[in-house]
Amino acid sequence: PGIRALAKRYNTLCAQLSDMKAWSAIHKNAVIPKPVDINGLFDIGVDDAIWEDAGLDGDAEEAPPAWLADEGIREGIKAMLMYDQGKEEIWRL
Fold this sequence. Notes:
There is one protein chain. The chain is mainly α. It has 2 domains: 62 residues, no CATH class; 29 residues. The chain contains 3 helices and no strands. 0% of the residues are buried.
């Protein structure tokens, strides 16, 4: 199958995992991978979800790190990086 077909299948599996977590059919600490944007599949950035390897170490009992599981913290990290970059740009001016 083509790459787009594989990405579509991956997204279907992500949705199934999300449903399973909602039904408590999988461990409560399981981190559900985010679906891949099929339209931007060939324009992958360093922050894209495709690079996340959570859950591959086989330790489902341990809660995932907050930077990975908490969307608020992820957004806070991005905001802090933008703030730091802005300060650096002002300093360079």
